[in-house]
């Protein structure tokens, strides 16, 4: 099972060009959804405005070195996550998604009718299983509103569209590949697989899918502004700033030392 190309079985019913056209349409849907999201939120305008401010007002920095650090630390290693469990779940899901999508494209275009397509078939299975492990681990055990606030993991929000459609796509795809045989069940699973995948790639405008393109740019701009000193213009948010102390109505908080202790952070918020 793990050595057979799941898409090769489709050629008896669908021509190879059908799945190839579908993959191309999904790529175009991602591009269109991302551009619409950028235009709606003004993300590119905001980024380039900050970039010009950092370039014009800050001291010179090594852009190449910062780009490499951003790619290695923030993108490849997901350095933004301080929680090791959250980072591991994110890395499993991210790399699994990349492996799964890449191997799908290779299998559909390079081996449309060939059942033997190692190692791409194994990479397709590996990527799918990584997505399922990382995605379901995050959904049921790591999400803040579930782990810390005690809310039900089955509560759905629009912000969950990306992760849910991703999990549905990979889940139905794995089940379809495992239960192939031309039965009604296998074709029903294939239909659900295509439906969930379509929602995943066509819902970019309404989901967090486009964040994977924005976050590296934001991380890069943050590193540049920190190194060239332009982030020093931001207001202080510590109690040693008189303006911040005056915001508190309690005299105790106005004069509280910086090392008050952990307080409510002494243990994880699991008392809801």
Q: Please give the oligomerization state of what you see.
A: single chain
How many distinct beta strands? Answer: 0
Number of domains: 1
Characterize the largest beta sheet: strand count, sense, and whether it forms a barrel.
Answer: none
Global Rg: 24 Å
SSE arrangement, N to C: HHHHHHHHHHH
Helix content: 55-70%
Treating each run of at least 4 consecutive H or I residues as one helix, how many helices? 11
Mean pLDDT: 83
Strand content: under 5%
Which features does this protein show?
272 residues, mainly alpha
Q: Would you kindly provide a written description of the structure presented here, covering whatever features stand out?
A:
The longest helix is centred in the middle third of the chain and has 27 residues, at 84-110. The two termini are 45 Å apart. By secondary structure, the protein is mostly helical. The model has no long low-confidence stretch (mean pLDDT 83). 21% of the residues are buried. Helix content is 63%, strand content 0%. Helix 3 crosses helix 9 (211-227) and helix 7 (161-178) runs antiparallel to helix 8. The chain has eleven helices and no strands. The protein has one domain. It is elongated.
